[in-house]
Amino acid sequence: MFHRWSSSPQQDQESSELHAESKIKELKGAIGPLSGHGLVYCTDACLKRYLEARNWNVDKSKKMLGETLKWRSTYKPEEIRWQEVAMEGETGKLYRASFRDRQGRTVLILRPGMQNTTSMENQMRHFVYMLENALLDLPPGQEQMAWLIDFTGWSITNNVPLKSARETINILQNHYPERLAIAFLYNPPRVFEAFWKIVKYFLDSKTFQKVKFVYPKNKDSVELMKSYFDEENLPKELGGKSTMRYNHEEFSRLMVQDDLKCAAFWGPDEKLSNHIANGHSAAVFNETSPDVC
């Protein structure tokens, strides 16, 4: 009798790792020599994310990465500083939480009901700044972040314009592939359903699967969210027990400190140096990082 040979989980993992290494090497050869920020950006982990986003197709991954490098060279996301977008963050409509999820990932809290400006360009720069900040905050070995979207105060009158929602999705999917682990939409009002029916068509299948709706009266959805987050850390508005509130002044101090870390990571930053020299941030550097939410 013949027995079908089957590989062990360890062999499968080793085979998968060898395949990934081979594809990364192939993509490196395809994109050619890099310099400056492009060299800093295109780590092996980065190339792997683009390959995963394009189902390990090297040609498609190369095209996607090339478009991102072109976008980064003109948009310069790593050069955006808090002083430029601080006004967008005054209401706490988007900020980095002081806690992580159960896997140690950075958590971004989005509160669309707290929209306070009308310039889509400035809103997108604020969004990109917070993405870059969240990724810089990731612990070693962790590649993804988690989102918590709080619909408190949201209504059809302060709804995010469709154009803004589409651009947000475009930036996330095309220039930050495989960076989002999970996004929980907490207690969206019924009127949001019509908006969602349109927005979901902008999402690729991988991103769509990461979006989870949570309703306080739906036990399964609540339990799913709590499997990702410690209830003691979650704000009460998101079904948790924490009573901490967003404090814009404290958060601003933390962001200015993080701007220094960003500059150190990417290289010399004349814009930040001038800002410090002008005395705008002098009080920050003698303080420890506070709790900000």
TrEMBL record:
<dbReference type="InterPro" id="IPR036273">
    <property type="entry name" value="CRAL/TRIO_N_dom_sf"/>
</dbReference>
<feature type="region of interest" description="Disordered">
    <location>
        <begin position="1"/>
        <end position="20"/>
    </location>
</feature>
<feature type="domain" description="CRAL-TRIO">
    <location>
        <begin position="82"/>
        <end position="246"/>
    </location>
</feature>
<dbReference type="InterPro" id="IPR052578">
    <property type="entry name" value="PI_Transfer_CRAL-TRIO"/>
</dbReference>
<feature type="compositionally biased region" description="Low complexity">
    <location>
        <begin position="1"/>
        <end position="13"/>
    </location>
</feature>
<dbReference type="InterPro" id="IPR001251">
    <property type="entry name" value="CRAL-TRIO_dom"/>
</dbReference>
<dbReference type="InterPro" id="IPR036865">
    <property type="entry name" value="CRAL-TRIO_dom_sf"/>
</dbReference>
<dbReference type="GO" id="GO:0008526">
    <property type="term" value="F:phosphatidylinositol transfer activity"/>
</dbReference>
<dbReference type="InterPro" id="IPR011074">
    <property type="entry name" value="CRAL/TRIO_N_dom"/>
</dbReference>
<dbReference type="Pfam" id="PF00650">
    <property type="entry name" value="CRAL_TRIO"/>
</dbReference>
<dbReference type="Pfam" id="PF03765">
    <property type="entry name" value="CRAL_TRIO_N"/>
</dbReference>
<protein>
    <recommendedName>
        <fullName>CRAL-TRIO domain-containing protein</fullName>
    </recommendedName>
</protein>
